[in-house]
């Protein structure tokens, strides 16, 4: 069973004047442990696809199974549980709370867990996780005082704290310089090599080159699904 299976996916944004087809009949399978880049020009539909994969947005048609769960049939409450349990998110703008400490930012996803013992176990992973990401010494520092690269490491730690199987990254190096971008993509690659499935939206071919496969989208249509590199 692949963790992600989408078939004939469509997304239409309707206005009073017309309908915008953001995704047209997209089908895609992603294997467990795969690292996939989604590429396309601005407005191609790649971020819309990522939002649907992340259970943030609903498709207008087609099917999406996440870990064999039919996503389009789930209630908003169930989708929130799926997002918190199965998915980790890394954004271009980091999406951190600047006046919170590193520790408080990373632990935020645990606030939505209902199992106290599991929450305690996950929180206990924090020191080792921060050390692994080379920000252990910044644990009590406010995020506003960190560099861009350090902020993205905090965002990655937050994505990993619940130990999800899938990491979704939307232009994770878009706000970083070249050297720091390479450090971040190498970090994501090492996380992938530990067994995490990682999907990255990027416009940078140097970032995409670290992935097992490149999926290309233009005008809402998949033009190339790529081949998995052995």
TrEMBL record:
Matching Gene3D superfamilies: P-loop containing nucleotide triphosphate hydrolases (3.40.50.300)
Pfam families: ABC_tran (PF00005)
Domain ABC transporter residue range list: 4-229
CDD domains named among the record's database cross-references: ABC_MJ0796_LolCDE_FtsE (cd03255)
CC annotations in GO: membrane protein complex
Coiled coil: none
UniProt KW Nucleotide-binding keyword: yes
Keyword Nucleotide-binding on entry: yes
Keyword list, A-Z: ATP-binding, Nucleotide-binding, Transport
SMART domains found in the cross-reference section: AAA
GO terms of molecular function: ATP binding; ATP hydrolysis activity; transmembrane transporter activity
Family: Belongs to the ABC transporter superfamily.
Descriptive protein name: ABC transporter ATP-binding protein
Protein source organism: Saccharibacillus brassicae
